[in-house]
Amino acid sequence: MTATAPLAANRPAQPASGQPPAIAIRELSKTYSGGKRALDNVTLDIPRGSVFGLLGPNGAGKSTLINILAGMVKKTSGSAEIWGFDIDRDPRNAKRSIGIVPQEIMFDPFFTPRETLENQAGFYGVPKDQRITEELLRAVRLEDKAEAYARTLSGGMKRRLMVAKAMVHSPPIIVLDEPTAGVDIELRQQLWDYVRSLNAEGVTVVLTTHYLEEAEELCDRIAIINHGKLIADKPTRELVAMGREKTVVVTLGQDVDALPQGRSFEKVEAIGERQIAITFDMDKATAGEVITAVQAGHYDIVDVVTREADLEDVFLKLTRENNADAAA
Ligand code: ADP
Ligand code: MG
């Protein structure tokens, strides 16, 4: 998939009201008929021109959010605007402004890739002379398979066809829901190249993932959603910095008396009679400095365990901060 992004010709004109965010979500909630509250009062702006990551563990509510935007799941309450168009009041323009690559691969196995794209363009009412079928086939490297039945395509090819299908109407926003689930490394790289080329052409890209590294690599802004709630919405740089923490737990030969000191430690606490946990930023300190500081307190060291922050810790940290904010 090389850098050929689709033409902007068919993109809907911007609404008159200046420059709203690409997607504006307000107090959006969804409770499924079984009673599961999959989205809980989510308010979020996705800036124009960004590569935006919606990050969260499985079951967090990511697909529910995307499917509401796609018009495939009915929200329980709240509102959403896509490119300034309200999904309830102006569903037609809202739909024309977004291309969605769903998590599940789905299309008619008896059509060829070319037919699939032509049908989809017809569905969106793109006039014949404005269709970009051949360009899209090239962009996702399916020009050789243009006449093959979709059911004979490999998994990777099917996913590429899904991406092309989402772009037939040249929307200003493309959303990829878990695009690399079950995708090999080579295809992943091709997919990212294509996503970057679309973004370079001005397309706002939204992708959901449960991999922190994936979001880190691609996105300039990341929102984290957990149990249906938005718990963070930050520039990637800030979020990644939160995961640069390491905790060293030292078990001592004596009861804890005075806590060791270190200028570059973030937190020092006694977590048991003979255990101290020291947390530091990996850019500022090392486990060696921790050990030196403990030894300076004339303790014997019986055991040392180190733990690096992962997404789970970032979640916990954010949740703690959120609770502290709420209590303040
Ligand atoms: P994610 O995409 O982040 O993995 P989903 O939005 O798919 O999460 O799911 C969020 C929660 O809603 C999960 O607990 C899931 O089981 C539930 N859920 C998803 N779709 C349905 C549905 N159609 N009916 C009932 N519950 C659902
Ligand atoms: Mg999902």
TrEMBL record:
GO MF terms, alphabetically ordered: ATP binding; ATP hydrolysis activity
Limits of the ABC transporter domain: 23-252
Entry keyword Nucleotide-binding: yes
Entry coiled-coil feature ranges: none
Keywords in alphabetical order: ATP-binding, Nucleotide-binding, Transport
SUPFAM superfamilies the record matches: P-loop containing nucleoside triphosphate hydrolases
Matches recorded under InterPro entries: AAA+_ATPase, ABC_transporter-like_ATP-bd, ABC_transporter-like_CS, ABC_transporter_ATP-binding, P-loop_NTPase
SMART domains recorded: AAA
Disordered as annotated region, ranges: 1-21
Top-level taxonomic group: Bacteria
Pfam families: ABC_tran
Official protein name in the record: ABC transporter ATP-binding protein
Organism: Flavisphingopyxis soli
